[in-house]
Amino acid sequence: MTYKSEKAWKRVKAFYRSFTGISGGYSTTHRILSVDKLSKAERRFLTVMELSGQWKGRTLCIGVSETANGWTDGKTYVAFNRDYLQRHNPKYYEGAAEMVTLAFHEMAHDTDDTGSHFHSIEFYTAYHDLTRGNALYLIGRLPDKMRNQKWQDQAQEIAEKEAKKKAQRDKALGITRVVKKQVAADSDLTHNPTKKVVKKLVRRRRRF
Fold this sequence. Notes:
Number of strands: 4
Oligomer: single chain
Strand order of the largest sheet: 1-2-4-3
Helix content: 55-70%
Low-confidence stretches: 21-26
Structural class: alpha+beta
Number of helices: 9
Mean pLDDT: 83
CATH architecture of the domain at 30-148: 2-Layer Sandwich
Order of helices and strands: HHEHEEEHHHHHH
């Protein structure tokens, strides 16, 4: 090391940190979240993406990781990092582009990529084949499909709330009890006799 380079190094040495020292502060785990732990927006994203039918049997899911935007076991699932999804909202085209290309990126991996992230010639070939046409179409349609799915979810929530309120009103007015009694009465009128009763009736008829 020359005098000049040594002098320059002393100026920046205080800011230097080894990769081992920095990476030691990060968790390398990849944890998939259960569906009941997801927000409405996250579940909506998975629903819309699954409906596109591009994933060849792999389940789409959301998880948490400090080191990966997405990951896969290469066979059964593709996971999206929750933080990455929140920073790239798929209801906008920019976010849709990020999430769709990430999904196809993970689909191009045919082995587990949580431990390493090597990209072979086979990976790039698979990524090319997967994204040829399909990716652009899905990116263009994803924002609209996200909005439509949100309207459907909201309509379903309203319908469920109205049904719940109606059930509460009916119970308060005693309508539920009346209906149950009427159903019971109707079932008695339309009661189907057992085999023993039928045989007895047949015997009685034969006597006459």
